[in-house]
C-alpha cells in the first residue's frame, strides 16, 4: 500500500501565535467518539472557532476571510503537546493543512504528523518570527531540499528524520516497511538467552 | 554482558532492538506489552482489515474500556448503561475487534476493568525491563516499574498490532535527581508538579527521564506511578524509575506476575537493570524535595504552577501566562488560597489508586462538602473500587456528600459525560489543565488528592496541612 508522494507544499499561511497549543485545543476530546478518521476538519480548534451556540468567533484567525484555503499553519512553540490522539493530525489534514511551521513539536504529535503526510517544519526562533510576521502570505515547503521560503526570497532550513523524509518523498508506507522485517522479528522472538517476560 | 556503563534506559532499549538503526532507517523496536482502549484503536483495526492482517501477538495485547465509559451505577443487568449512541458504538466496536482478533478484553461489567494505566500494574502485567506501548500519552505511568513505556498514535497502534514492533528514533536521556524527602502533607503529585514547573512543559521533549535520588527511592509504587504518569506533561517520551525491593514487593503475587522459579529468575534479571554507577546522561537537573510545598496550577498547562500559599505570577512579558490568566479569570499578584471552587474531581490515571483515596479520606473523615460544591470521586479501577469499599472509604466519601462512582477516566478527559460546567472552577487530581480539558470553558486547577480533599470539604482552595491532624 502506498501514499501520494510529497515533494513541495505551496500555499497560503495562517498564523496562530500561541505557544504550547495542545492536542485538546486542536481537537477537543468530546469529538473522539468516532470509529473512523473522517470528517474531523469541521471540529478542528472547535472551541476557538465556535461559540457554544455554534456561531463562528469572527476574530479567530481561521475564521477570517483571508484564511480561507490556507494550507500552511504557522503556530507558536511546542505545537501538539499533550495527548497522543492522532485525531489532531487527522483534523488538521482534513481541514486542508499540509504543513505546520513552529519552533518545536511534541514528540508524539510529530510522529503522527509524519505518518499522515502533514509536514512538521521546526525552525529556529528568528526564522520562525519571519514566517509569523508574513502571516497570510504564501509559504513554500520544499521537502527534498529541507527548506521553507517566503515570496520575498527569505529561506530557512529545517531538519527531518531521513527515514520519514524518504517515506514522504516516495509515498512509502511505514507499516509495509515493518512487515518486511518479519524474518528479523521472528528471529528476535525465538532468540535464546536473556530473560524475557 | 555490558562492557561499558549503561543507564536503565539504555539497558531496556538495547534489549528490545530487533534490528539496529541504519543511516536509512530507525531501529526496529520490540514491544512486550501493548495496551489498547476504545478511543484510539478502532481506526487501527480498520487498517488490519483493509490489508488482511492478523494481530501478531494477541497474548501480548490487553484491551479495556475506560475513556468514554460512563461512571454511573450499573443497571439491573450489572452493566453500566451507555446512553450516548456514538460512545456505545465505539465501546461495542472494541468488543467486536477483540473477539475477531483474539485479544483479551476486560469489558464493561468485568471486575478487572479500569483505567488502562491502573489495571496493567495491578494485574502484575507491567514488569521491570519491559517495553510497553499504548495509544495514550499517559503510558509513561508504567515507567515506575523500570519499564520503558510510551504513548503512540493510532497508526503506530496498527504497527504494533500487526508486527509487535515500532520504528523508533532513539531518544536522549535526562536525569531528574531528587534529593531530600517530602514533608508531611506534600505528595508525589506535588513533586512532579514542582519538577514540571521547573523544567517546563517542553523541557523534556526528545528525552526519556530517569527519576533518581533518595526522594524517589522513598516513594511507594503508587507514588512512583503518579510521578512517571506526568512525565509527558514535561514533554518527555517516557519517565522511568529503577526497580528495587519496593517494586518487587508490589509485583509479587499479582495475577500475571511470574511464579516460583520463574519469579526468582525474573528478580535476578530485574536487579541488573538499575543505572550503573558511572553511567552518564545527556542532561541532568536537580530538585530538592525537602523544600517542596503542596502545589497548585493557576494557568492552562501543568507548568504554570505555584506553591499553595504562593502568589500567582505577573504575566508581564509572557503572553502565554497573560492568555492563561484571562482564560482562568485569575488576577496576578495574589494567592489562590481562599478562592471558592465549584467542582472537585478525585480520579484519573495520575491519582485514583487506593493510596490516593486513603489520603483523600483522611481529610474527608468527619467533614462535609458545603452546599453548591460538586465532588466526584472516581476510582481508577473496579479493583480499587472494591478495595476502597472493603475499607469503608466509600462511606466516608458518601457521608461527606461526595459522589462515589464506577471506575474510568471520567472528568479528566470529559468525554464520557462527566463534565465541568462552562466557567466553573474545578480542583482536580488529574494531569491536564488545558483550556476546555474538563469541559468547554472549564477552569482546572491541578492538585494532589490531599489538596483536592481540602478544597472539597471547605469549598475553597485550602492548604491541606491545615486539616491534617
Salient structural properties:
heterodimer; A: 197 residues; alpha/beta; Aconitase, domain 4; 7-stranded mixed β-sheet; 30% helix; 16% strand; globular; B: 469 residues; Aconitase, domain 3; Aconitase, Domain 2; 3 domains; 5-stranded parallel β-sheet; 19 strands
Description:
The complex is a heterodimer of chains A (197) and B (469). By secondary structure, chain A is α/β, with parallel strands linked by helices. Chain B has three domains: 161 residues, Aconitase, domain 3 (2-Layer Sandwich); 105 residues, Aconitase, Domain 2 (3-Layer(aba) Sandwich), CATH 3.40.1060.10; 171 residues, Aconitase, domain 3 (2-Layer Sandwich), CATH 3.30.499. In chain B, the strands form five sheets. In chain B, strands 5-4-3-6-7 form a five-stranded parallel β-sheet. In chain B, strands 17-16-15-18-19 form a five-stranded parallel β-sheet, covered by helices on one side. In chain B, helix 2 links the parallel strand 3 and strand 4. In chain B, helix 12 packs across helix 14. The N and C termini of chain B lie far apart (52 Å). Chains A and B meet through helix 4, helix 6, helix 7 and helix 8 of A and helix 2, helix 3, helix 5, strand 8 and helix 10 of B.
Tell me the layout of helices and strands.
The complex is a heterodimer of chains A (197) and B (469).
Chain A: E1 8-16, H1 23-26, H2 46-49, E2 72-75, H3 87-95, E3 99-102, H4 107-115, E4 119-122, H5 125-133, E5 138-142, E6 147-149, E7 155-157, H6 162-170, H7 174-179, H8 182-190
Chain B: H1 8-15, E1 17-19, E2 27-30, E3 33-36, H2 42-51, E4 61-64, H3 85-101, E5 104-106, H4 116-122, E6 131-134, E7 148-151, H5 154-163, E8 165-168, E9 172-179, H6 188-199, E10 207-212, H7 214-217, H8 221-229, E11 238-240, H9 245-251, H10 260-270, E12 283-288, E13 295-297, E14 305-307, H11 319-328, E15 343-346, H12 354-364, E16 374-377, H13 382-390, H14 393-400, E17 403-404, E18 425-428, E19 443-446, H15 449-458
Parallel strand pairs in B: 3-4, 3-6, 4-5, 6-7, 9-10, 9-12, 10-11, 15-16, 15-18, 16-17, 18-19
Antiparallel strand pairs in B: 1-2, 2-8, 13-14
Helix pairs in contact in B: 2-5, 6-8, 12-14, 12-15
Amino acid at each position: 500500500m502506498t501514499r501520494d508522494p510529497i515533494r513541495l507544499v505551496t500555499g497560503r499561511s495562517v498564523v496562530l501565535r500561541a505557544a504550547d497549543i495542545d492536542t485538546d485545543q486542536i481537537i477537543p476530546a468530546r469529538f473522539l467518539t468516532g470509529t473512523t478518521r473522517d470528517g474531523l476538519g469541521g471540529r478542528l480548534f472547535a472551541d476557538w472557532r465556535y461559540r457554544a451556540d455554534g456561531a463562528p468567533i469572527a476574530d479567530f484567525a481561521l475564521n477570517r476571510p483571508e484564511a480561507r484555503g490556507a494550507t500552511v499553519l504557522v503556530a507558536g512553540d511546542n505545537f501538539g503537546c499533550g495527548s497522543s490522539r492522532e485525531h489532531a493530525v487527522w483534523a488538521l489534514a482534513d481541514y486542508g493543512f499540509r504543513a505546520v511551521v513552529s519552533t518545536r513539536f511534541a514528540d508524539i504529535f510529530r510522529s503522527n504528523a509524519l505518518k499522515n503526510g502533514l509536514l512538521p517544519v521546526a525552525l529556529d526562533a528568528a526564522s520562525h518570527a519571519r514566517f509569523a510576521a508574513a502571516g497570510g502570505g504564501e509559504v513554500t515547503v520544499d521537502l527534498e531540499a529541507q527548506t521553507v521560503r517566503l515570496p520575498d526570497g527569505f529561506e530557512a532550513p529545517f531538519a527531518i528524520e531521513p527515514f520519514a523524509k524518504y517515506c514522504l518523498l516516495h509515498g512509502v508506507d511505514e507499516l509495509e516497511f515493518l512487515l518486511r522485517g518479519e524474518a528479523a522479528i521472528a528471529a528476535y522472538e525465538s532468540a535464546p538467552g536473556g530473560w524475557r517476560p | 554482558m555490558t562492557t561499558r556503563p549503561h543507564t536503565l534506559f539504555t539497558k531496556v532499549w538495547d534489549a528490545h532492538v530487533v534490528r539496529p538503526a541504519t543511516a536509512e532507517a530507525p531501529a526496529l523496536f520490540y514491544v512486550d506489552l501493548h495496551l489498547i482502549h476504545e478511543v484510539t484503536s478502532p481506526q487501527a483495526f480498520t487498517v488490519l482489515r483493509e490489508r488482511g492482517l492478523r494481530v501478531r501477538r494477541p497474548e501480548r495485547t490487553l484491551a479495556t474500556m475506560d475513556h468514554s465509559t460512563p461512571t454511573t451505577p450499573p443497571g439491573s443487568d450489572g452493566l453500566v448503561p451507555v446512553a450516548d449512541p456514538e460512545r456505545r458504538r465505539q465501546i461495542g466496536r472494541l468488543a467486536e475487534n477483540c473477539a475477531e482478533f483474539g485479544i483479551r478484553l476486560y469489558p464493561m461489567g468485568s471486575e478487572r476493568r479500569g483505567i488502562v494505566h491502573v489495571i496493567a500494574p495491578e494485574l502484575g502485567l507491567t514488569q521491570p525491563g519491559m517495553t510497553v506501548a499504548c495509544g495514550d500519552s499517559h503510558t509513561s505511568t508504567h515507567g515506575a516499574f523500570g519499564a520503558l513505556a510510551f504513548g503512540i498514535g493510532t497508526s503506530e497502534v496498527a504497527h504494533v498490532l500487526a508486527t509487535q514492533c515500532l520504528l523508533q528514533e532513539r531518544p536522549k536521556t535526562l536525569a531528574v535527581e531528587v534529593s531530600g524527602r517530602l514533608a508531611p502533607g506534600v505528595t508525589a503529585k506535588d513533586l512532579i508538579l514542582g519538577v514540571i514547573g521547573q523544567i517546563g512543559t517542553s523541557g523534556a521533549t526528545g528525552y526519556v527521564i530517569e527519576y533518581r535520588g533518595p526522594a524517589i527511592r522513598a516513594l511507594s509504587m503508587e507514588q512512583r506511578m503518579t510521578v512517571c504518569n506526568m512525565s509527558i506533561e514535561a514533554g518527555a517520551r517516557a519517565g522511568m524509575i529503577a526497580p528495587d525491593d519496593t517494586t518487587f514487593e508490589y509485583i509479587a503475587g499479582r495475577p500475571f506476575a511470574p511464579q516460583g522459579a520463574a519469579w526468582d529468575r525474573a528478580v535476578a534479571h530485574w536487579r541488573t537493570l538499575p543505572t550503573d554507577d558511572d553511567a552518564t546522561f545527556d542532561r541532568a537537573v536537580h530538585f530538592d524535595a525537602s523544600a517542596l510545598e503542596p502545589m497548585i496550577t493557576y494557568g492552562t498547562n501543568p507548568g504554570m504552577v505555584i506553591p499553595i500559599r504562593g502568589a500567582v505570577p505577573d504575566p508581564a512579558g509572557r503572553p502565554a501566562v497573560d492568555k492563561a490568566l484571562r482564560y482562568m479569570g485569575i488576577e496576578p499578584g495574589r494567592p489562590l488560597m481562599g478562592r471558592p471552587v465549584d467542582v472537585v474531581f478525585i480520579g484519573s490515571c495520575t491519582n485514583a489508586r487506593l493510596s490516593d483515596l486513603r489520603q483523600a479520606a483522611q481529610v474527608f473523615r468527619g467533614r462535609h462538602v458545603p452546599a453548591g460544591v460538586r465532588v466526584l470521586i472516581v476510582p481508577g479501577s473496579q479493583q480499587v473500587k472494591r478495595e476502597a469499599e472493603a475499607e469503608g472509604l466509600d462511606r466516608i466519601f458518601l457521608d461527606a456528600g461526595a459522589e462515589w462512582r464506577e471506575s474510568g477516566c471520567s472528568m479528566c478527559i470529559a468525554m464520557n459525560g462527566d463534565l465541568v460546567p462552562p466557567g466553573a472552577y474545578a480542583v482536580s487530581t488529574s494531569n491536564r489543565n488545558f483550556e476546555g480539558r474538563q469541559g468547554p470553558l472549564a477552569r482546572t486547577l491541578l492538585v494532589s488528592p490531599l489538596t483536592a480533599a481540602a478544597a472539597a470539604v471547605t469549598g475553597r482552595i485550602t492548604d491541606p496541612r491545615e486539616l491534617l491532624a
